[in-house]
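re the bet — no i am not wrong, look at it urself. input seq straight from the record:
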Amino acid sequence: MDNAAANGRLQSLMSELITDSSVSLYVQNLLHRAPLLIQFRPDIEHCFLTKRAQEFSLIFRIASFLWLALYIAILSGAWLNFSYIFKDSGYMIWQSAFLVSGVIIVALNICAYLPKTHDFIYQNIVAPAATLTLYQLLVGSVAYPDGFLNVYASYNIIITMIVTIFSLRLLWQKSALIMICSSLMAYASLFINDWHVPMLQFLHAFVLIAVVLLNISFFVERRERLGFLNEILVVIKSSELARINAYLATIAREDALSGLANRRAFDDCLEKEWERSRREEQPLALLFIDIDHFKLYNDTYGHAAGDDCLRQVGHTMKKALLRPADTVARYGGEEFVVLLPATDSQGAEEVAERIIRAIDVLAIPHKRSLVAFHVTASIGICSIMPHERHTINNLLENADAALYKAKTAGRRCFKHYQEPQSLTSFTFNNKNSM
């Protein structure tokens, strides 16, 4: 898989982890105990191994080139100093070791440019290839009595073990298995052919180096596992912080009682829509809405019932708006505002009529109302074409003045403040929805 797909897969696994509420406690307990041998539960282990596979894919192209350069250097050195091993058929083991290693390294360099093969190579090819290469080097180091070749082979063995353990992103258990399998295969070859083993050289070049490297590999992996646990904690904390910030941003712009936009959110929206309307030369309409005789409603039914009434009316007004761009907000107390972008006087009147009818349909009882036996609303409308002679305050003040006219006209109606032809004054065009 390519890097983008690998990143997406890892991010998906991490997202699944942080949604599990038990992960945070598990990770914190494991970090607190910090055992010598750290083993994760299956879901975290799978995520950790996916990250290692991704790291292998990222370094694979560079590493394969370095392996090729190293192979060429070793091959060149062998040809310059021990050319006879390539010409004499008696050195078949060394010849096959160079040939097999070369084929493997060239194949890996080709696959390095095929990202879709990386996961398969990491899971199924790297360990067997490393085992086979190390096996041939071990056999070659004891197959001939020439001490120079044996020492030369020891260097290659050490280099191969270092590359296997530290550049292939294998778990220390798999690295240990490669060492054990290659040594057992080499021992079987020695036993069958009755070859002499230079014990001191074998102990230094293989056993001692293998033990040291495996110990280093174990503690490096342990440190990486602890680091991965801390990484998970950071992701969890970041996710929690993002949720808190999103919640704070929501409540900062949302009225807690009605669930509508609050005054701050409305002011921001009004400023944005005002500039857009002025730029695009589109009309902008504003509705000021007031629940009729709401103080009497609170005095009669209590503040809890008043809060419920505000919620129902706010929800009803929101449903009455048909366009996503239309905004309804609680302006304060029992007052609401509706902002209608790209809406002329007629369109604003249609929305006002729809809102008044929708509130009537609610039929919330209000026995002390001086207008009807249920909750009603009065609406003031102002629709203007924003330009340099107008301000946002003009729009607000004119809509509020229109609402005052609706109240003095008997309530449960709307009054429209219409922009006159002259830019210096405004007149009222009274309309009643009843």
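see?? The first strand starts at residue 284 and ends at 291. told u. also The longest helix spans residues 199-252. so pay up
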